[in-house]
Structure formats: structure tokens, C-alpha cells
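Appendix B. Raw example, untouched.
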Amino acid sequence: MQDLTQGSISKHIIQMAVPIAVGMLFQTLYLLIDLYFVARIGDAAIAGVGAAGNLTFVVMALTQVLGVGTVALIAQAVGRKDHDDANLVFNQSLLIATLCAALTIVAGYFCIGPYMRTLGADVATQMAGIDYLNWYLPGLALQFAIVAMGSALRGTGIVKPTMMVQMLTVVLNAILAPVLIAGWGTGHPLGVAGAGLASTIAIAVGVVLLVLYFVKLEKFVGFERQQWAPRLETWTRILRIGLPAGGEFALMFVYMAVIYVLIRDFGAVAQAGFGVGGRVMQAIFLPAMAIAFATSPVAAQNMGAGLFDRVRSTFRVAIGIGSALMLVLTLICQIKPEWFMRWFTQDAAVIAVAAEFLGYISWNFVAQGIVFTCSGMFQALGNTLPSLLSSGTRLLTFILPAIWASRQPGFQLHHVWIASMVSVALQAVFSLLLLRGQLQRRLQLKVAAVPA
């Protein structure tokens, strides 16, 4: 356990953000490695895996419910020096993870076909997505266990073990991908199905490694069988914080699905370009997301300890670091967006779509970083409803203009990108206003609680 209520706030954020960013980078490499080898199969395969990958936002929404609630409650318990409560939250989160994994498997296999037939631009794209998800779905189910254990460690201020596990699993995925996708050494390529299977095997190994870490090395929280009986009061505490945060990712799923539907008439090339550009964008967002992920436990521990001035300072430091990083990335994307794409495809038409997408979207990188940081602060404060409300406004300000534009003569892809760019800028302003209100309310409550 690391005490984040003492010492330099900027040092705590950076020390946590660097391993988190490295771990998230390696986690993103799951999709990028798959995309690299899948791109050799053809545009339909790229579009299919891209559209199928959008379904991961549903699983990410559910894991976010679990992860955000677990991090916030354990971090606040650490700030209060309440070991028993931290351990109870950890074991209950594992129970929830087990139930969610079973639900993902059962519901997922029922939904794969209808989902891909709705989003796929043609039959080949639909079949590629179905093949990929049939083998990747077990890996998605196992993500719940990884999130539960990783979130518990992050709440206690420990992030390096999770990073190391993510690195090892990505290395394993990189080894398996060419063997299973392209048939290197076996002569039996599985295509997009091999991409899903490689990721599932790697994730399963990651679960085993984290379990071994908790059994052998972790001391502050650990597995306790007697705490696996359902505790509805603890579930309520986790879900009260986590559900709105999970709702944000659910809205992101809707947002991405709407884009795929809007650009479907432009063909598989457009969907492939958006799929490549979207994966690159996710990788570029990692620094800002890492800052936000580090901000949450730092602010939450200080919130639990009653150190409100340090909570406010955490936000100011995080905004400064995150905005500086995203500004640099914006300049890089404006100068040479094509550079990122050539790693995954040599198709000039796909590169053109992806580069145009990144060229427009990069203008809101700083705004997106602000949204991420505000989200981390809402999690630390234990009230994620404002963050969900902020995401809801983004969906509203994007969908209505985008659908209207799609029905006008001369509708082009860049009209979708512009609508998205404007909606994120508005969301950043709204998030700042909501967070300001939350911080002022907490300060008033603190002053009112001080005896005369």
C-alpha cells in the first residue's frame, strides 16, 4: 500500500501515470497487433474486426462499473486507514466479476450475429466480425477478473504489478498472433478467428499471473473465502459509484455504433479507415487517460483523509500535465497523420479515410484530456453522475447534427468528423462546470461540519 496523502502531488500522479500508461499501451497493442496481421487479409477483414471491436465498449462499460467503484471505495478506505472495509470491497468485487463474466458469455453468443448484421457494410465484413468475436468473447469475459484485481491494486496506490502482467500478456499475444492468424510455422492460418483466439489465450494467462501475485505477494488486500457471500450493501456502494461511469462507456458504444451506421453507405473502405483511425486514436489518448486514472486514487485517498486542499490541487496538477501532453500529440497529428496509418495498411484509400479522420479529431485532443481528468475527479469524489450527464450531452450534440447532415445532399465523411469534434469541445466545457459545482459543494459541506 502507498500513502498518497503525503508528499508531492505531481510526483504521485506522474509515478502512477507512467506505469498505467505503459500498461494501457500494451493493452491497446492487443487490438493493434491483431489489426496489423488482419490488415493483410483484406478490407473486409479490417472493417469486420473494427466493427466487432466496437462491441468491446459494452464489456468495457461493465468492467468500468466494477473498476471505478472498486478503486474509489478502496482508495477512500486506505485514506481512512480502514483495512477491513478495503478487503471486503475487494472480495465482493471479485464475486461481481465472476457473475459478470458468466453473463458476458451467455448474452454475447446470442447477440454476435444480429449485431454484426446490423453494422457490417457487406456480407464479408459481417462474417469476419462474427468469426473474430466467436473466439474473442471468452477473453472479454476474463477481463472482469483482471479489472477487479487491477483496480484493487490501483486503489492502494500500486500499479506496477498490473503493468508487468499486461506487458507479458501482450508479448504472448504478439507471439501467438502471426501463428494463429497467418499460420506461421503451422501452415494452417485461422484468419480473423486466430486474432480472437490469440487475445483470449493471452488474457487467460494474465488472469493466472495476477491471481498468483495476490496469493504470494499482496498484503493489504487478499482473497478471503468468508467474504465471498453476497453483501448487498457493499454491492450498492460499488454500483452507486460505478454504474454512472459504466454508463459513459455504454454511451460510447452507442456513439461508435452510430458512426458505423452513418458511414455504412460509403462502403467497407470507409469503415476500415474509421476502424484503423479509431484504434490509433485510442492509442494516442493513452497519456491523458493514464493521468486521469492516476488522478482518481490520489484524489480519493486525500478525500478519505479529509484533505480537501490536496484534492483541489490534484485536479489542477492533473489538468496541467494532461493538457500539455495532448497539445503535443495534437501538433504531431496535424503535421503527419498518415504516418500512424502505414503501420497497419498500405491501402491508399483506407489510409486517406483514416488520416482525414485523425486530422479533424486531433483538434479536440486537449478537450478530450480535460474530459478524462474531470471524470477521474468525479470518481474520486464518489459521485459519477455528473460525468454520465456530461457524456449524455456529447451524445445528444453529436447524433442530432450528424443524422441531419447525413440526410442532406452532398453528405461527406468529414461532416461526421466535424460534428464529433464540436460535441467533444462542448462536453469539456460542461464537465468543467459540473466539477466546479461538485468541488464547491464539498467545500461547503466541509466548512459546515467544522465545530464553531
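End of appendix B.
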